[in-house]
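Hello,

Our lab assistant flagged a job as stuck in the queue for most of the afternoon. It eventually completed. Since we weren't sure the result was trustworthy after the delay, we are filing this so someone can double-check. Below is the sequence as submitted and the structure that was eventually returned. Let us know if re-running is recommended.
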Amino acid sequence: MSRLGSPLLSTAGRCEGERVGLNKDIAAQLAEARLAEWQRDGHDEWRAMIDDKDLRRIVGEDGKRYTVVSHAFDDGDGRVRMSVAVDDGGLSALVPLVRDDIMRPDGTFVR
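-- returned structure --
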């Protein structure tokens, strides 16, 4: 406990230089890889995912477990937004890294 009565974060068990919290580089790689998989699907498959979620648990190259959640939303005018959120189960679960793409009805992407 600190003098103010709040617990201090322990560094026990961590190696010097080890990252604390979400590794944003790895999380971004996982999100981009999942979006690349979705990009191979057509507009009908994306529409079928609206209001549904796809959850995957993946071990990153750093050995940490990541949760990768894909969620599709109606973006208006026939477009579908696919959002992919990645967290490592820690505090990042409250504010995950998010990447998204928007597909038009003709199958092209908004860039």
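-- support follow-up --
The delay was a queue issue, not a problem with the job. The result is valid. Residues 85 and 98 are 4 Å apart (CA to CA). The helical segments are 24-39, 43-48.
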